[in-house]
């Protein structure tokens, strides 16, 4: 498992079996890439976590405390992926939130996935998932703990040659991959799906939108992806991954993708 | 908290912080009313749990083991609500299910909610929730651990005079309450919403459908509820609850509701 864990600030492996994170998926998480003690996208992770707390009516965490705990969990690892889980804590049985919420925080550091220079250079193969994402504006964009759709979608394949699965909504709009966001270049213009109905608004996606403010955020019908000059995925863990094949169709790795990879490296990753 | 807990068969309060039930809501649960050592709807709970495991590709539990553990947890309580949680167990980071799944089982016994003879006799007031349920056929009907919609809906009110909240889908079809199913009587015919797009297919609902095989299972637009002669809610924990007011409109408690309450008592509750 190779995880180092802090639960509510103490070294520990366990949480209460009555935690609402377990009972109802009542909480949020962040998955943060560390390079030594630095997490280049830390402020964006904290921004998303705070925004998620507002939308779920959760008390927000103390970012300074989380950073200290993330560094403690990751200490001794040259590179780490730190997952922070923030739940509504222990509660009585039933959906009604407790009157006095004491959130649970779990900080877990993992070895990152092995570097994959071939995927960075040549791109990954992406399949189209059969599962279609449900539209729920109240939860769209959040990195909450209700992730059965992603689990079912990721279980659709186990061929290690497939790097990711593309998820569409019920109206066959492209939304995101199971654990990454999607970008497409049409006639030289960068675009990424709007995420107000479903999907997770990734921190790497936010970084790209800030770096390329002219990026179009809009509905992208699946059929239109066939006309894209370039496709790439963004992930806070895996960085910028060119897509070299989507559902059997080959794509070239183009200049916008390469520029975004250079931007990513310049961040310190 | 008043809970007695067995985790994987041992008395214990905690689960691994790396359990996929906590990480992704990757699992199922049942909430089962016990009268002494008896759970009149036990076979239906096990049937739903097994069906849920098939749909989520989870190994099924051993019902005899669960029953023994549920009775152990509930022992000493005249009446109990036993929650069984069944997750995909501990896994590595990431959505991909582990190659070898070792499910986690949590059996927790609680004191039941206080008896409410007035609600049974005169009915409960039901409000209309603002939240609309997302349509996800892959998860519809299951009692899975992804319950943020119910948490948000239940957080819409804290007036104890309101007994439940009615949830509709995005097309304004009535689906269910936050923690109960809905039945309506139109011109003497019992009907309940179809749950192939969203909603939880309750065990008490299944009992009613078996007892009244002529019940119509169909789409019920919210607007049509205004023409219902009777409305009631079904819950494995709270039984059959007449609805005396829906979103401000008063209803009488009618003969079909009373017949279903008599059926419920005859089961041993």
Automatic annotation (TrEMBL), chains A, B:
<protein>
    <recommendedName>
        <fullName>Aminodeoxychorismate lyase</fullName>
        <ecNumber>4.1.3.38</ecNumber>
    </recommendedName>
</protein>
<dbReference type="InterPro" id="IPR050571">
    <property type="entry name" value="Class-IV_PLP-Dep_Aminotrnsfr"/>
</dbReference>
<comment type="similarity">
    <text>Belongs to the class-IV pyridoxal-phosphate-dependent aminotransferase family.</text>
</comment>
<dbReference type="InterPro" id="IPR017824">
    <property type="entry name" value="Aminodeoxychorismate_lyase_IV"/>
</dbReference>
<comment type="subunit">
    <text>Homodimer.</text>
</comment>
<comment type="pathway">
    <text>Cofactor biosynthesis; tetrahydrofolate biosynthesis; 4-aminobenzoate from chorismate: step 2/2.</text>
</comment>
<keyword id="KW-0663">Pyridoxal phosphate</keyword>
<dbReference type="InterPro" id="IPR043132">
    <property type="entry name" value="BCAT-like_C"/>
</dbReference>
<dbReference type="InterPro" id="IPR043131">
    <property type="entry name" value="BCAT-like_N"/>
</dbReference>
<dbReference type="GO" id="GO:0008696">
    <property type="term" value="F:4-amino-4-deoxychorismate lyase activity"/>
</dbReference>
<dbReference type="InterPro" id="IPR001544">
    <property type="entry name" value="Aminotrans_IV"/>
</dbReference>
<dbReference type="InterPro" id="IPR036038">
    <property type="entry name" value="Aminotransferase-like"/>
</dbReference>
<dbReference type="Pfam" id="PF01063">
    <property type="entry name" value="Aminotran_4"/>
</dbReference>
<keyword id="KW-0456">Lyase</keyword>
<keyword id="KW-0289">Folate biosynthesis</keyword>
């Amino acid at each position: 498992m190779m995880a180092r864990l802090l639960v509510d600030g103490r070294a520990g492996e366990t949480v209460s079996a009555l935690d609402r994170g377990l009972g109802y998926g009542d909480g949020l998480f962040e998955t943060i890439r560390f390079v030594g003690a630095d997490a280049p996208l830390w402020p964006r992770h904290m921004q998303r976590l705070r925004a998620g707390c507002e939308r779920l009516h959760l008390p927000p965490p103390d970012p300074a405390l989380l950073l200290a705990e993330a560094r403690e969990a990751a200490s001794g690892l040259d590179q780490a992926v730190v997952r922070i889980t923030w739940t509504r804590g222990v509660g009585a049985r039933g959906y009604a939130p407790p009157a006095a919420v004491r959130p649970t925080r779990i900080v877990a550091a993992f070895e990152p996935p092995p570097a994959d220079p071939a995927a960075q250079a040549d791109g990954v193969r992406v399949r189209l998932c059969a599962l279609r994402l449900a539209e729920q504006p109240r939860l769209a964009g959040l990195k909450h703990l209700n992730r059965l759709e992603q689990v079912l979608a990721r279980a659709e394949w186990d061929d290690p040659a497939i790097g990711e699965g593309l998820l569409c909504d019920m109206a066959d709009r492209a939304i995101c991959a199971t654990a990454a966001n999607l970008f497409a270049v049409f006639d030289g213009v960068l675009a990424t799906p709007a995420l107000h109905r479903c999907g997770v608004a990734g921190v790497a996606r936010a970084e790209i939108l800030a770096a390329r403010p002219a990026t179009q955020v809009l509905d992208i019908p699946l059929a239109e992806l066939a006309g894209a000059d370039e496709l790439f995925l963004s992930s806070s863990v895996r960085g910028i991954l060119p897509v070299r094949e989507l559902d059997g169709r080959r794509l070239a790795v183009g200049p916008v993708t390469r520029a975004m990879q250079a931007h990513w490296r310049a961040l310190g990753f």
